[in-house]
Write a structure and sequence with these properties.
alpha/beta, 7-stranded mixed β-sheet, Dimethylsulfoxide Reductase, domain 2
Length: about 775
Amino acid sequence: MKLKYSRRSFLQSTGLGALALTLNAGQPVFAQEIFAEDANQLSSTVVPTVCAMCRARCPVQVTVKNGRVIRIEGNPASPLNGRKVCARGHAAIKLLYDPDRLKYPLKRVGERGEGKWKRISWQEALAAIAYQFKKTLVANGADSLALLAGGPSSYYIKKLFNDTGITNIHDAALRHCDGIRNRAYVATFGFPPGDPPRLDYAGAKCMVLIGCHMGENVQVPQLQSLLSSLQAGAELIVADPRYSSIAAKASVYLPVKAGTDTALLLGWCRHIVAAELYDKQWVAENVSGFAELEQHLEQYPVEKVAEITGIPAQDIVRTAELMASKGPATIIHPGGHLSWYGNDVQRVRAQAILTALLGGVGRPGGLQLPGNAALPDGVLDFAGPQAGNDVSFSALMEQMIAGRIKVMGCWGQNPFQNHPSIYKTIAAFKAADFVFCCDVLPGEASLYADIVLPEAVFLERHDILEVWSDLENPLIACRFPVVPPAFETREPYWIVKNLADQLDRNNSFFHDNGAAFLDSQLRKAGWFLGDLRVGGGIRRVHDEVALQVVPPPVSYAAAPEATPETPPLVPVADAPPVTPVGEPPDPAVDGTPSLKVRFPTPSGLVEVYSPAFAEQGWAPLPEYEPTPEPPAGFVRLLYGRSPVHTLSSTMNNPWLNHEIAENEVWVHGSYAAASGIRDGQRLFLENQDGIRSFKPVKVKVTPGIRPDCIYLVHGYGCRSMHLKQGFDRGVSDTSLMTRSSKDPVSGVRGMRVNFVRFVKARG
């Protein structure tokens, strides 16, 4: 029996195939993957789990036949993605069976960066880490250790570092995305917008995306909701220097000049206020600082904003009036990756203020108030972002170079692609006394590690509970192992527990394995891990079932086939209803229903003028700050996402590489003509500091980008020679980012402040 995976089925099974196909470079070429199976053994099982190929966390179900994973599809019990899963989710099979994956603990035997190791035992590997950890902690204190960690498997190692008093914990995704967004929205509304943002797509009549690459960043639940809203007739406004895939579906596309987004937002606000198009009653009842805002906006007349942004004044007016006419059912999307130009919190604050002017908070079709789901004990711990979103990566690297940070752990992160100034990162890693790395694949970080730990692929392990707390009836799911760990890989709980044992710091890690720990957490709510698995992998917090007696705890083995008999379903007794953080509107006064909501800010109102920012010495109202212009002959370097890759983490996947083999550099035709550049030509990129790309990159001449920019898909250019599929594939954008601009509020460095020019390849 043979299972054929064609390119068409691979993409179209996502339910988003048509969109993904439009983003492929070159002509479609059909791929085929064949698994040979023993026709005499037809037994198969379907196991629920949660995909970890990107941040979307889609519940999936996995078909296993004869001990081998043969199919991954969306979980029909999931209200988030249903049966759909993106190309990356399907391709997790190739991650599981990647011949290059880390198989055994390793010890460095060459120079840092060479990637030369020898195989050692787990006992030796953990003992080496524990020795350096304890020695440094005693001699130099907690500030001399640091951790770069992200992804679902990093929960336990972050907890261990936190429990030890180590606060130098950096998570790139939280820092570059959530950290900026949360600071802006908390300063304005008193609460973050959520991850993913709590947006009522079903009720929206207009949506505004500003540099938001939904479509290329295919996160199925969000994208499905947005596309359904468009199908129902919602208008879409997209402002972006590049004509992205989602811009092709827009009612209005605005090719805003890079770095002027804040001016555009303030211009919209100015016209809406000056023309009295804002929601007067909602603003009067819910907003403080409106008078200060109105005065502040006088410096952003539409004609001036048009000169700054390159958008005709009539288009600024037309789009402002369109979103106001659909308010409050207008979504101003908070965005994802937001570290652009160094004034990023204020830009996102302007987005929040525009939302407030439209009255689009806590009302149908807009940003929804956070729910207070009263999550059960044991589940609440997993509902919010974990530690590590307030530490500057640049500061950590400087401290490593200066010798103040001596021990660095790197867990599921690629700091050599996530951040600018990679040569500074290399110098920092070489300067450290000791570096350990835990990952699934031998990526770039592992090249600089003294000890490398092989983590099980997410399909082989129990991870943390996944909680969607902002839904009306919150969901809980678990990442279950569908096959046993291969080689000598281990699940993250086992690794951290045994490291904690070596450190004599095992207060938090006293269970035998990850399954037993998760079961103990669920028991606080009166549930059981086994219930979750046989119940389709998903649990709604407030669903009522018959109350039963809680049996005694059971011991779970790591391999899925050793799971004990499933205990009966047990409910949460008298689950409370979901209530929002903000208090509901007041009763009607004089026949006019009140729209007042009590916000969790110091004033109880939406603070468009931020007293907290003023106290810190930051601008209390967003201001447009010009970014430097490109030098003569240079253009600004922009970057973004691929529809089939998750940054650099999937670059060794043959299925995904077959769909998009390399990144191309987008160049406008006028710049190409002036520079003598041809479509399809391969050229080096050189930045303003004379740093060149490692290899030439293929040119894509297109009208779909402004003439003052070029664009690269992020994640390519891997330098780990141990990744045979990913090594030297395409060109790294971050290798050309030798400059950055620090945001004064978040401390995060904006990376879209570098400029490049083309240099012909020799020979």
